[in-house]
Design goal:
One of its GO terms (cellular component) is cell outer membrane. There is one protein chain. By secondary structure, the protein is mainly β. It folds into 2 domains: 87 residues, Carboxypeptidase-like, regulatory domain (Immunoglobulin-like, Sandwich), CATH 2.60.40; 565 residues, Maltoporin, Chain A (Beta Barrel), CATH 2.40.170. Helix content is 3%, strand content 60%. The chain has 4 helices and 45 strands. The protein has a 22-stranded antiparallel barrel. A 5-stranded mixed β-sheet has the order 9-14-15-12-13. Strands 1, 4, 7 and 8 form a 4-stranded mixed β-sheet that branches. The longest helix is centred in the middle third of the chain and has 6 residues. The chain is globular. The two termini are 41 Å apart.
């Protein structure tokens, strides 16, 4: 890429940040409004910025103090001081502070604020809004980023990424994945997100084996507001969002609400999505406490595109969908209730507590051809003297679950350079799994005349307890941290006992997850860090239900080393990070059947991920910037054995066994890179060129060259313009052209192998992504 050189005279702005008593505030953030350019004050409260001439609004913030703004016309070297008033209120940030990394933490992380999220929030799912962050690869069943989407960070899929919303676990307790489709347009109610890569700091919920997403929803806004946000795009895509808020009432109360609808036909044939959601939040702010209640819910109806398409179809009909039944849909609703209380118990102690409850229910409906009736507990049908044992049918697979619990944290700061956090959670999950036949071409039901025949019914119960303690100590330029977590999991499920009989089973697991790190601060702008962290993770539902106590997989173990350098100048921010993720007993698909005939994942003794990550932003001039990320990695399984079984019961040699060494971990590209180049072509008008490169990925763990996802390089163009008119505070117009060069690519897929009559067959399937398409957004803020 060739960037033009921009030469421009630089003017120096320097000053001091103090409190009302003229005491210096070290570490205050001085930034330009509507710009990422920022610096931090040093130990004396002093700061320096170099900028071209022009008109600027400076914003200065410091935890516990009110943010102050000053606007100046800059034409010569200028002294600009700030005196911040202490806030009467505690900030909402304390709700999530226990599970977050700070700027001096020896942890690899990326923060996204509301402005960074809003600029790309045109209707695509939350993972797509994170696509420009380091080591991220996203995917979409429908090909548009709307509907069922996936995210991988450092090659780890969603079941290995810990997700919390205000510190409350979002990952499903059994499958361990996070399904953002159940919370459509959540991004419109998000204030900020912290992405920690690797094990990260201790948090609540499932173990972080690739990363953590710590999401904080709407926080206090002092002024009343109303926002209308509407998008129209290719494939009949619509997004309509209304946001309203009262601002701060009588300096004590605030209320916020959102209502959203997203619809799309999808790029893949019939891969439609009909998504609806709402978010309501109310808060009380006292001098020493905050009480906040959140209620949010989402419903989704999506036509299934789960199967992808075959390699042959990829060449002839990229938009093909195997499913043709009219109601081959997934239907689900999830309701979330959260109650938070924060109390300042003195100058040294702050306490947080939260209660939460999530209710999810729904089903997916599918047509099944020529099914054996006995498999559904349906007796054979006698018609005209002929016995019918098979039938076409339609079935619904239901899930009805409750998830509830409590989280807490205590933050104790006995000295300005010493901080202790004690946190933890206790959660329970009740899951009901049941399946019904709602129609069959031939069937004798139970005689009740019911249209629904329930043929499978089982329950699951899980408890998850954790407690962690973390200490940070600042000694001159060194910052030390230690983090210890104990986690206990109990899981009761309907499975196979040692004798092979279906019955209620249970498992108990206890984990100890220590972490330690060291940061050295060269100055207020730059530091280096190193850390080591241990994570442990339980198997998922399928691993349990499709095995017995003798063939059950072991839990996974990860030792994660991180080391990096971070720096922040007036016009340049840069981070470089190296990591080593060393796995013991990582669970992968090998094709092996266990003692009960289930093809569950198997443990491999040793595997690893080694990588180098870059993340930076260069404000080349007032109107011109370049942001980019790059990851270079190697991801290996030292040894594993593949099993391929013959589907012909009369086969002489019923299984083929292959042993592999030093193979690539599937879906783990060795190169991931992103770029965003932006230029303000006119006042309040910007054009941005957004690029993403993902290297070749293996579809299985054999490293076979004919079972891969090809590398892809996709480019988007974003045009945006903001203005004001009459009583409208802001009119924003955004036009996004995705895949502007019409790249034909697939970002997800799979591979399968089988024998029949001794002949080995291997096949691939893929999820094709949309060719050139557009999204046009109009937002109005009052």
């Amino acid at each position: 890429m060739l960037l033009p050189c921009v030469a421009m005279a630089q003017i120096t702005v320097n000053g001091k940040v103090t409190d009302n008593n003229q005491k210096p505030l070290a570490g205050a953030t001085i930034r330009l409004k509507n710009n990422v350019t920022a610096v931090n004050s040093n130990t004396n409260g002093d700061y320096t910025l170099s900028l071209p001439s022009g008109r600027y609004t400076f914003m200065v913030s410091f935890l516990g103090y009110r943010t102050e703004e000053k606007t100046i016309n800059l034409s010569s070297n200028t002294a600009l001081n700030f005196s911040l008033a202490q806030q009467i209120f505690i900030g909402d940030e304390v709700v999530v502070s226990a599970t977050r990394a700070s700027k001096n933490s020896a942890t690899t992380f990326k923060n996204l604020d509301k402005a960074a999220i809003e600029k790309n929030n045109l209707g695509q799912d939350l993972p797509y809004l994170l696509n420009q962050t380091p080591s991220v690869v996203v995917s979409s069943d429908a090909g548009t980023g709307i509907g069922y989407t996936g995210i991988r960070i450092r090659g780890s899929d969603a079941t290995r990424i810990n997700v919390t919303v205000n510190g409350i676990p979002l990952n499903d307790a059994e499958s361990q994945g996070s399904f953002f489709i159940n919370l459509p347009d959540l991004a419109s109610s998000v204030d900020n997100i912290q992405i920690q890569r690797g094990v990260g700091t201790s948090t609540n919920g499932a173990g972080a084996f690739g990363a953590s997403l710590n999401i904080q929803t709407t926080t206090r806004r002092d002024s009343a507001y109303a926002e209308l946000n509407n998008t129209y795009g290719s494939f009949e895509t619509w997004k309509n969002t209304v946001n309203v808020g009262t601002g701060l009432i009588n300096n004590k109360f605030s209320f916020d609400g959102r209502l959203s609808r997203i619809k799309s036909d999808g790029y893949v044939d019939r891969a439609s999505a009909n998504l609806k959601s709402f978010f309501v939040s109310g808060a009380y702010y006292g001098e020493k406490d905050i009480l906040r209640a959140n209620v949010f819910s989402g419903t989704e109806k999506t036509y299934q595109a789960w199967n992808g398409i075959s390699e042959a179809k990829l060449l002839t009909d990229r938009r093909h969908n195997d499913f043709t039944y009219d109601n081959q849909t997934d239907n689900y609703q999830q309701d979330h209730y959260q109650l938070f209380y924060t109390r300042t118990l003195g100058s040294q102690l702050t306490a947080n507590a939260a209660l939460h409850y999530t209710y999810g229910r729904g089903y997916y409906e599918e047509f099944r051809e020529n099914q054996v009736l006995d498999d559904y507990n349906i007796p054979a049908v006698n018609i005209g003297g002929a016995t019918i044992t098979n039938s076409d049918l339609v079935r619904r697979l239901w899930l009805d679950n409750d998830f509830y619990g409590v989280t807490y944290s205590l933050n104790y700061t006995p000295k300005s350079n010493l901080n202790f956090i004690l946190g933890g959670a206790y959660n329970e999950y009740d899951g009901k799994h049941f399946d019904e036949v709602i129609w069959a071409q031939f069937a004798n039901y139970d005689g009740s005349g019911s249209i629904r025949h329930r043929y499978n019914d089982n329950d699951a119960f899980k408890t998850d307890f954790n407690i962690f303690g973390r200490a940070n100590y600042q000694l001159d330029k060194f910052n030390f941290f230690a983090d210890l977590q104990y986690r206990s999991v109990y899981y009761s499920y309907f499975g196979i006992d040692p004798s092979g009989t279906p019955a209620q089973q249970n498992a108990s697991l206890n984990f100890f997850n220590p972490k330690a790190g060291l940061t050295y601060n060269f100055n207020a702008k730059s530091n280096v860090y190193a850390s080591v962290a241990v994570g442990n993770k339980e198997p998922n539902r399928r691993d349990f239900t499709d095995s017995n106590i003798n063939s059950r997989p072991l839990h996974e173990n990860l030792t994660n080393f991180e080391a990096g350098y971070r720096t922040q100048f007036s016009n340049l921010s840069l981070g470089v990070n190296g990591y080593a993720m060393l796995y013991k007993n990582q669970l992968i698909n090998t094709g092996e059947l266990n003692e009960v005939g289930g093809q569950t994942r198997q443990n491999v003794p040793d595997s690893y991920r080694l990588g180098l990550e870059f993340d930076g932003r260069w404000q080349i001039s007032k109107d011109f910037y370049w942001a980019g990320t790059a990851t270079f990695s190697t991801n290996k399984i030292k040894e594993f054995t593949e099993f391929i079984y013959d589907e012909d019961p009369t086969a002489i040699n019923p299984v083929v066994i292959n042993t592999y060494q030093n193979t690539n971990i599937s879906f783990s590209p060795s190169v991931i890179a992103s770029s965003e180049i932006g230029y303000n072509v006119i006042k309040n008008g910007q054009i941005a060129f957004v690029s993403k490169y993902v290297g070749k990925q293996n579809l299985d763990n054999t490293s076979a060259g004919n079972r891969t996802l090809s590398s892809f390089f996709v480019n988007d163009i974003r045009l945006s313009y903001n203005t004001t008119f009459a009583g409208v505070k802001n009119i924003g117009l955004t036009f996004m052209v995705n895949n502007v060069f019409n790249e034909l690519y697939e970002n997800n897929g799979g591979s399968y192998s089988y024998l029949f009559g001794g002949a080995l067959e291997r096949g691939n399937y893929y999820y094709p992504q949309a060719t050139r398409n557009f999204l046009l957004n109009l937002s109005l803020k009052f």
